[in-house]
């Protein structure tokens, strides 16, 4: 489960990122609470607008930010973006401390935060490939998700306490200090042990090369469709948690607690993903369906504590889906275009928020927060349905019962050996695939009949 931590570089990066992630979750929780309760009168649309401004640049700038990650040194990019994020947190913290913050300040902060993160995200996601071997890539991606969700377990709860104890402005100042951990970690890395990949050369059409690559991979198109639907309409946790906390008559402390409880399931999903040897499409489909059922069930919870308990299952299914999707995209993508493909992935994941968050916020305002959860649940079920329809509609795929199991279903190819995708590769396939071997001459002719290799008597 933790095999990637054996390497010095990844271990240093993991520790620095964990500290910074805690601060980031403190800041995100505080930002949404300030917009909802201090600068507006419980206006969920304002929270949705803030999220739209924060995640919109991921969508608009995707052709540029992915190319930056492929063309320039990722360590240098991260030095620049993390320093800029630290200065931005200090600026907003000072505005809040001196009582000058207005709603438009939060909107501007969210927009600038989104622009910097649009450059930071693809570089940070693909930087993992330089820290670990190909064999440990899926494990490292899952451990990154575990770090992110461990921080979610701690950060929002600490933010809720600090908002009440010392004020929202100081939370931003504390977050700015946590960026020092990432900057120190980047400076401590052993550059001689970093893996070197060829950078993108300057040529005509290189901005859209990532789009062309994804267009030729139907499996990635399906994954991106699932991620878009759940990212846009399902992953609006600040809206769900803040409005449901108000629905149950709770305050900032309970709002932070809901985010931390959500992280219990998220952390569990990330750690279980770290145990898997490879990312599989079937896990993504099951997680999408699980998210849909969990979100609809959460909308029916009668009390604060039953609602909080239901968030564990939402967190588990969400992170299982996102970690597996991230791992599948990274491990099956050509390294030469990985930055651009991951930028497109992050744009679809985060960029769907400007579309979904205002809609979900409007539903919460008009019909109540429970109906906003239903919208997220329906999006999850629709995402799972799209994936199942693609599998069943593929000319090479069919669904059948596994011979060794009474209940388990497996997806098989109708035309053996035709077009195995990278995500379908496995050691058992390699060990039992037909191999054509030359046989001794018979009657002056050489036979090339296929022979099935036998391993361990199978």
TrEMBL record:
Localisation: Cell membrane
Compositionally biased tracts (Basic and acidic residues): 446-458
Assigned keywords, A-Z: Cell membrane, Membrane, Transmembrane, Transmembrane helix, Transport
UniProt-recorded Gene Ontology molecular function terms: transmembrane transporter activity
Transmembrane region(s): 12-28, 48-69, 76-98, 141-164, 220-243, 255-274, 281-301, 307-329, 341-367, 373-392
A cellular component annotation (GO) from this entry: plasma membrane
Highest taxon of the lineage: Bacteria
Gene3D superfamilies from the UniProt entry: MFS general substrate transporter like domains
UniProt keyword Signal, yes or no: no
Region (Disordered): 416-458
Pfam families recorded: MFS_3 (PF05977)
UniProt xrefs under InterPro entries: MFS_dom, MFS_trans_sf, TM_effector
Domain Major facilitator superfamily (MFS) profile: 1-397
Family matches, as CDD domains: MFS_MefA_like
Bilayer disposition of the protein: Multi-pass membrane protein
Name of protein: MFS transporter
Annotated organism of origin: Mycetocola reblochoni
